[in-house]
Every structure is written in structure tokens, then in C-alpha cells.
Amino acid sequence: MPTPELAERLLRMTQDRQTALDKTVEAARLAGLGALLLIGSLGRGGGDAWSDLDLIAVGDAAAALDLADVFGDQVLATVDAPREAPIGGSYAGVCLQITDGVLWLDWYRWPIETAAIPTDATALYDDLRLPASPVEFIPLITAHSDPTAPGASGDAAVLLRVAVAAKYLARSAAAKLAAKIPETAGLRLDETAERLHAMAASVTDPELAAAVTATRKLVDLAEAARTSS
Fold first, then answer.
1. CA–CA gap between residue 224 and residue 97 (Å, rounded)
2. Which end of the chain has fewer beta carbons closer than 10 Å to its terminal beta carbon, N or C?
């Protein structure tokens, strides 16, 4: 069982994520986006304190909405990955500082012409009356993306991978952890946090120093959650 202190920190993570979501929805409406869809585990109606924010923004105004303007100094790093984007749109991973580490927001800007609501998504609002897709998000984005486009790379992408690994560590999901982060394959779970710290510490770009510190804080929290489960 989590200690009262750990339970409070996990609750705070959930609250920080909800605050970020509320702020994003408000900014999207003000910018005139036609629809905003929540995907991932939260879009399926599940998720936990470790779930990221995964959003599809639909409408011409999506190109003009800069999340750096929405979140200001809370943005610690960004990752661009054209391979993850729908053709004619874009993908950005945005690393937000929260009280107990980082929250990654996956932002898919999707053209109106090809947009549809995946079966595993929740429409936060939909003024466009988008059609319902017969498939879930992963096969939908696979059908509409360019596999030859560049993928995520660079120091910020390293921190994204560490943050993804941290949530699997917290859940003691060894198989998913090894599949997503090959550097952890063959390690015991009690050896994983040290490897993730080393990966984060390998990022030496001074502009990412705050992101490194916050990511390592997240790893420590994940290890505390693992050992308490």
C-alpha cells in the first residue's frame, strides 16, 4: 500500500494533469479549433496517475495554437516527430513541469479532411460533427501517417523515453518496459531506476537542465510507487 505521502503525491499528479487538460481545452476553444479528442488510456475511460495526455486537435486554427504560449515557462522541452503525425498535420510531444516531475502532452494536429473519431477516443468537444471511425487510434494513425518521415530524435526524445519508462516501472510492467525501452531489457525491476537515471543524465544540453532534473524526479517517484505496490 502507498504511504500517505506517496498517495498525496500521486493525487497531486492527477490534479496537475487535469489542470493541464482544462487549460488546453480552454485555449483550443478560444483559438477556434473545431474539435478536440482525448485518446490513449484516458480517452478509453481508464488510466491512472501515470497516464500521459494524448490529444487530437482538429481544425485550421490548430496550426496557430502554440502550446508554448498556453503553458509558458511550464514547457521544459518539445519533441517533433513527423513520422507520428497524420499526413497534412503534425505531431509534437510537449514536456510540462508539474509538482512531482513531468507530464508529457502528445499533440496531434489533424486535418479536417481526414479526421474521424477513433473508437477508443473521447470527444472533449466536437463542433465539426466528425464522423466515427470504425477503428481505434493506432490503426487510424498508421493508415494516415508517412512511415518514411523522420522519427523522434535528439536529447528531448531521450527524456521522453525515460518518462515513458518511468510509468511502466511504477506499474511493475516489466514486459512493456523492455519492449518500449530496449536499454532496460534483461534488467530486474529493482535495477531499472538506476539505468533510467543514467539515460537522463546523458542529456547534457544546458537548455534541458530543468527537464533532466524534473524527469529524474519522476523516476524516483516511479521507483517509490513500484516498491510500495
1. 19
2. N
- DSSP 8-state assignment for residue 67: H
On the question of pLDDT at 61 being above 90, the answer is no
* Cell 524526479, residue located: 217
CA atoms of 108 and 179, how far apart (whole Å):
23
Give CA–CA dist 107/67, Å, rounded: 9
Instruction: Please tell me whether residue 95 adopts helix, strand or coil conformation.
Output: strand
Sign of CA dihedral 22, 27, 32, 37: negative
Count other Cβ atoms within 10 Å, centred on residue 226: 19
User: What domains sit in the chain, N to C, each tagged with a CATH number?
Assistant: 4-144 (3.30.460), 155-228 (no CATH)
The predicted-structure confidence for 176-219, as pLDDT tens digits, reads as follows: 999 989 999 999 999 999 999 999 999 999 999 999 999 999 99
